[in-house]
Fold this sequence. Notes:
Bound molecules: flavin mononucleotide
Radius of gyration: 18 Å
Number of helices: 8
Distance between the termini: 37 Å
Amino acid sequence: MKIxxxxxxxxxxxxxxATMLLNEIKKQEPGTEADEFTVAGFPSCAxxxxxxxxxxxxxxxxxxxxxxxxSIERADVVILDSPTYCMGISGSxxxxxxxxxxxxxxxxxxxxxxxxxxxAISTTGGVGAKGVTKSLGKNFWGWGAAKSYRLAFSVMxxxxxxxxxxxKLEILRRTEIIARKTVKKxxxxxxxxxxxxxxFMMKRMMKKLDTLPDWFALDKTWWRRYGWIKE
Length: 231
Ligand SMILES: Cc1cc2nc3c(=O)[nH]c(=O)nc-3n(C[C@H](O)[C@H](O)[C@H](O)COP(=O)(O)O)c2cc1C
């Protein structure tokens, strides 16, 4: 199994849980390979629309974001971890995710996404982690991933060492369950009915692309290339 793990920062409680999940998956599925990236310090999306209109290779941050995106495309499982900051996704993760706007369903979803599994992880001092994993999960949905799981924990701590042993046991127990589900489904996951219906609706929309602005032209070519729409 191939995993791409994208961390918000170099340390912290949330990343510690992502590492716990990776270790658990490797224990259950020896031979698992993981590519790990840390997006702290990545530049913010410039909002220039270049990826949509001219192609992602023209993104001003292509050199930095492309290795991560191509790893996602090769992986069976993608892990995104973000601490809860101001009730939302960390700025560094959000900055990275915006670079994948062109990979959302209405634009140029990667065909390999149809069998991928996403795992969204967040910790919070008190509240907000469920909202963060839900927002991360929306990205998996937008990319067209087959399935996603969420791990959200309220830890009441500013670092991993200060988390109580009781809480750490709960984290380990829930992480083991998600690892088991991930190992069972990796490479075999299929989109459920609601995702297939969404894709069908996207197809209908893409057929009307001639009525949409010019910057959709690349998207339409993409949909034709994969035979999702005819001429
Ligand atoms: C800038 C910042 C914003 C935060 N916002 C919240 C918040 O909105 N709600 C909350 O309960 N905890 C909040 N916290 C606490 C963190 O969510 C919590 O300590 C989390 O476990 C940190 O994860 P990390 O160690 O992976 O960075 C915030 C912490 C920081 C540094």
